[in-house]
Amino acid sequence: MAPPAWPCCTMSGSSKVTPASPIYTRRLLAYCYLCGCCRSGRCCMLNRAEIAAVVCDLDGTVYLGDQVIPGVPAAIARLRASGRRVLFLSNNPTKTPTEYVTKLTKLGIPATSEDILTSALIMAEWLAAQPGAPRVYAIGEPALIRTLQSHGVQLSDVPGQIDYVLASFDRTFAYPKLQIAFDAVRAGAKLIATNPDKYCPVPGGGEPDAAAIIAAIAACADTTLQFTAGKPSPLAAQAVATRLGLPITSCLMVGDRLETDIGMAATGMPAALVLTGASTQAMADQWTGPAPRIVTASVVTLVDFLLT
Amino acid sequence: MAPPAWPCCTMSGSSKVTPASPIYTRRLLAYCYLCGCCRSGRCCMLNRAEIAAVVCDLDGTVYLGDQVIPGVPAAIARLRASGRRVLFLSNNPTKTPTEYVTKLTKLGIPATSEDILTSALIMAEWLAAQPGAPRVYAIGEPALIRTLQSHGVQLSDVPGQIDYVLASFDRTFAYPKLQIAFDAVRAGAKLIATNPDKYCPVPGGGEPDAAAIIAAIAACADTTLQFTAGKPSPLAAQAVATRLGLPITSCLMVGDRLETDIGMAATGMPAALVLTGASTQAMADQWTGPAPRIVTASVVTLVDFLLT
Fold first, then answer.
1. Tens digits of per-residue pLDDT, B161-216?
2. Are A224 and A236 in the same domain?
3. Which residues contact B102 (CB under 8 A, 6 or more apart)?
4. Following DSSP, what letter does each residue of B103-168 receive, concatenated?
5. Which of chain B's residues have a Cβ under 8 Å away from the Cβ of A140?
6. A150 domain-assigned
7. Are B238 and B92 contained in the same domain?
8. CA-CA-CA-CA torsion sign (B195, B200, B206, B207)
């Protein structure tokens, strides 16, 4: 008999469960709890040899506000030295890739804009590819506006001319923007968003994110969100595959948020949850969405596991 | 055999349906459609002799913005001359009763503050009656703040000290208010609201109302609304009964919005829908909530019917 490919399943007495089994994704956490491997950060459900690239969230995963999470720069350096590509994928549309490069470099993680994908960039590329040059009313901070403009997206704040109302994380959000969005949707515009995040984790708390803006518009204009560009959308997975030139099944999504980062598991990416931001172990225990392959303390313990 | 009390039921072949029947409320529109009495504004389901007072919505029912709906001042005068009390009940918390008196008088409808109830006033009375002097963070316009202060409600914008985040119709809403609400809810505050309206009808469109503010806070802070003070809440029905000294079953609620004005039917008030504001006949046809006793063009046709 061949040695079991998934030792923790053997340990928990369920060696018949393989990644191809229909119960694999849904029951993963339950099985791992039996042997405790997820809690110890050494989950054997993650086949390390298959991981060619790590796609890493930023807020709550690499840093909180302007504070880098201890040990992460060295861990990223070790990952790169092992030959694995590291791509940063953030739902936060309040910085351009160039600004993220500056921030990461300052925090001790050298990067180029080729290493960065944002929900704003993915949305700008999608909008620029639409036929008929749709007009967009963007509720967002200057970085989003600049990203859209640099992709040639047509912007408008005249309700009757707007094809898409684009909601995003906007700390300059105010009632006059809500009024334009309301009027535009009532005149036929569709509601789309860069990202669905509830709040952005910052030291000591959070900042209300795009979910608040989306909900405000949807509630008053009696409409529903069409799609988001960022995690956990298939558009984001497609952007990862295009940028890395790899099948998404070999790209490990690492992040702190169940709904977005771990939600990417539904697109076919393996996903790892770190507990340095929005999620706790208790939240992971109750999570009924696509399962993470591993739940671990931080990017540091994840990299320890990957490189063991 | 006694003559049927509800001729339209007889006309539609359903004379066994009486107000005491469990299908009465749910099926009312369907029955009335058979004889067409609702469409003609002459619904016999409304027992005119039982109506001692008319509780009248304002935005979309009496006026749109600063324009009075034609004929309404004369209709209100006829109603009062018939001996029926007229009380104005608005979910709009952006004016104090005194300001509504001024507005109504200017539009040709003499009134005193005894004739006015608002969602802000009902909420202020509820908060003032709570034990322990709860601290409230009010997201609202100056009229709401003044109403709360005049009732001795304690206001605070320090998240850790706030017991209730009070959302309302606020055209001065901006991100810093959302941040305080988010922080307060995450620190344990409960989310309540003056009113649940999606938008306030104004000439040519609408203004995003409290529903947008409620939804924004609920979405980012992952909470749910506890209750609203205005229509269609039982608190509003109780305030009507107290103010008029009448059983609510003899007070006819008249308004343009299904969710709020007609929603009051669930509290036991008979309700009449007018088509001068937020609702169309098509929306009334699809409405599955508590049924209006009558659907009619405006307050003018309603008063014609009541006084015939």
1. 999 999 999 999 999 999 999 999 999 999 999 999 999 988 889 999 999 999 99
2. no
3. none
4. HHHHTT----GGGEEEHHHHHHHHHHTSTT--EEEEES-HHHHHHHHHTTPEE---GGG-SEEEE-
5. none
6. yes
7. yes
8. negative
Distance from CA of B88 to the nearest CA of A (A): 24
Q: Nearest C-alpha of chain A: how many angstroms from B184? A: 11
Query: In chain A, which residues have their Cβ closer than 8 Å to the Cβ of B184?
Result: none
Whole domain around residue B246: which residue ranges? 49-114+232-298
Please, which pLDDT band fits residue B45 given cuts at 50, 70 and 90? low
> Is A49 in CB contact (< 8 Å) with chain B?
no
The last residue of one of the domains, among A184, A205, A228, is: A228
Whether B133 and B217 share a structural domain: yes
Q: Give contacts of B218 with chain A, Cβ < 8 Å.
A: 215
The mean per-residue pLDDT over the stretch A261-272 comes to 94
A244: CATH: 3.40.50.1000
Q: How far is B256 from chain A (nearest CA, A)?
A: 16
A176 in the same domain as A82: no
Is B206 part of the contact surface with chain A (CB cutoff 8 Å)? yes
By three-state DSSP, how is residue A104 classified?
helix
- Closest residue, chain B, to A182 (C-alpha): B208
Least confident of A220-234, B3-17, B203-217, B266-280: B3-17
> pLDDT averaged over chain B?
87
**Chosen domain end from A206, A228, A250:** A228
| Cβ separation A173–B174 shorter than 8 A | yes
Q: Under the phi-then-psi rule, with left for phi > 0, alpha for psi from -120 to 50, and beta for the rest, what region is A16?
A: alpha
pLDDT band at A45, cuts 50/70/90?
low
ipTM of the complex: 0.83
Residue A23 is assigned to a structural domain of this protein: no
Q: What are phi and psi of B65, to 5 degrees?
A: 60, -120
- Do residue A207 and residue A242 come from a single domain? no
Could you please report the per-residue DSSP string of A177-238? HHHHHHHHHHTTPEEEES---SEEEETTEEEE-HHHHHHHHHHHHT--EEEESSTTSHHHHH
